[in-house]
Amino acid sequence: MTRLGDRLFTAGYARLVHGESDVMRGWRRWLVGRARGVVVELGAGTGANLPLYDRDAVERLVLVEPSPAMRRRLAGPAADAGAEVVDATAERLPLADGTVDALAATLVLCSVPDLDRALAEAHRVLRPGGLLLLLEHVRAADPAHARRQDRLDPAWRRIAQGCHPNRDTLAHAAAAGFAIVEHHPVPVTMPGASLFPHVAAVAERR
């Protein structure tokens, strides 16, 4: 992505998150409130989740963000929250094996270039029993809606910075060695909502 494209996407993303529904905000709070100990957040963006962590329970918070424009916006809030900002991708985390207690990904795994590698990295850095916390839009369970997602995917990826509308993220997480211990549909109100079903899920590293 060009520098201009990165800045424009970051500005648009910040406006989108600012206008997020109370329902979505509530699910973010429910999810990251489960984080304890050493916590990593993938694609932390402009810091939408930062105020929602239980700071009494989180010993260390590492915010992974590959976008320079996002990191610039994130730097101030992260410093205020005592969090670390790391320039890295989900597919290559600069963390030792088994050193993380919880890893959060909210609306980011749809757009990582290599989903399976990112989940393998999450599995590597999490300790046994560590939690993978997910809030993502996923492949539709209804076959007709899923086929529409498949048809939409090539064009949507081009206009939405690599976002895939049809990723079966929970199935990929299970294949990567995670046990899905809890998952809930998240209602969204947007045009074409049936093409973007959202879930909040907690998975345990086996």
Explain briefly what this protein structure is.
The protein is of the alpha/beta class. The protein has 6 helices and 7 strands, in the order ααββαββαβααββ.
Task: Walk me through this protein's architecture.
This protein has a seven-stranded mixed beta sheet, with helices on both faces. By secondary structure, it is α/β, with parallel strands linked by helices. The model is unreliable at 8-12 (pLDDT under 50). Helix content is 37%, strand content 25%. It has a single domain (3-205), classed as Vaccinia Virus protein VP39 (Rossmann fold). The protein has six helices and seven strands; from the N terminus they run ααββαββαβααββ.
Number of helical elements: 6
CATH class division: Alpha Beta
Largest sheet: 7 strands, mixed
Strand order of the largest sheet: 3-2-1-4-5-7-6
CATH architecture: 3-Layer(aba) Sandwich
**Helix-residue proportion:** 25-40%
List the main descriptive attributes of the protein structure presented here.
206 residues, single chain, 25% strand, alpha/beta, Rossmann fold
Describe how the helices and strands are arranged:
Elements: H1 3-18, H2 22-32, E1 37-42, E2 58-64, H3 68-81, E3 84-86, E4 100-106, H4 115-125, E5 126-137, H5 143-159, H6 169-175, E6 178-186, E7 198-205
Parallel strand pairs: 1-2, 1-4, 2-3, 4-5
Antiparallel strand pairs: 5-7, 6-7
